[in-house]
Design goal:
Helices cover 24% and strands 27% of the residues. By secondary structure, the protein is α/β, with parallel strands linked by helices. The strands form three sheets. A seven-stranded mixed β-sheet has the order 4-3-5-6-7-8-9, sandwiched between helices. The longest helix is centred in the N-terminal third of the chain and has 11 residues. The chain is globular.
Length: 259
């Protein structure tokens, strides 16, 4: 079929989690999706051949749905689970030779703590992104032990679907002498601009904590039917994320809380 959608048409309406305020819907046009889905930083994600199978263990309205769509576009197969059950997830990965599974942070914690983790064949996994909230460093170390060098951590929001990435090689470096990296959300992606600003909106020097301001071609166009709130967070082409953090000398971003 010939596509009828235009670049400026709405592709996604992403609901915020609403943990620090009213739940809202962030509007993303097709032009933003074209940037978000072109992700060479994530290694072989865009090169998976047909025959690869991904397992969706959380609602498709969230991040798992986008990972599933990206892989379906490559000709891969998707298996869907109604509810997350760690024992059933492990058994399915082994039985179906699952290659990819997106995990919420709590799901990752439950999996590595499950008694079946040490006696399940997880060798088919090649790509295991996780995120949505901080994960204790001990949990990530254990995940690297059991899953191997396949983990990536994503920092994103409903307003910008891809901000930074803690890559597979960063995870390996963390367990090989750089444990501080496990407290980071990785380096900002090439298409994302970032500034850390103080209470007077002044840019702060490297290492100082402040509010994270972001600008990217794949930002939301605004909140659904909420022009006042859109104007509050989108100012001068920058998104006021509401997150606090700092950047180190190598460009790694560390989140410290909410503004």
């Amino acid at each position: 079929m010939r596509p009828r959608a235009r670049e400026e048409d709405i592709a996604l309406l992403v609901p915020s989690r609403g943990t620090t305020g009213v739940r809202r819907g962030a509007v993303h046009p097709f032009s933003a999706m074209n940037v978000t889905w072109r992700r060479p930083e994530e290694g072989a994600l865009g090169d998976f051949p047909a025959g690869i199978t991904t397992l969706a263990v959380s609602p498709l309205a969230g991040n798992a749905g986008e990972v599933t769509l990206m892989l379906l576009r490559q000709g891969c197969t998707a298996l869907l689970m109604d509810d997350f059950d760690p024992g059933r997830v492990l058994a399915t990965v082994e039985a179906e030779r699952i290659t990819s599974v997106y995990l919420l942070s709590e799901h990752l914690r439950q999996l590595v703590a499950h008694p079946d983790i040490g006696r399940t064949d997880l060798s088919s996994l090649r790509y295991v992104p996780y995120g949505n909230s901080p994960v204790p460093a001990d949990t990530v170390r254990r995940a690297i032990e059991v899953f191997g060098p396949v983990l990536t951590q994503n920092y994103l929001s409903c307003e910008i679907r891809a901000i930074s990435l803690l890559r597979q090689e960063d995870h390996l470096a963390a367990v090989s002498g750089r444990p501080e990296l496990l407290r980071s959300v990785g380096r900002v992606l090439p298409e994302v601009e970032i500034q850390v600003r103080g209470p007077g909106d002044e840019p702060l020097p490297q290492g100082r904590c402040g509010e994270i301001w972001l600008r990217a071609p794949h930002m939301m166009s605004g909140y659904w039917r909420e022009p006042a709130q859109t104007a509050r967070v989108l100012r001068g082409g920058w998104l006021h994320s509401g997150d606090r953090g700092r950047l180190d000398g190598e460009g790694y971003l560390y989140l410290t809380g909410r503004a």
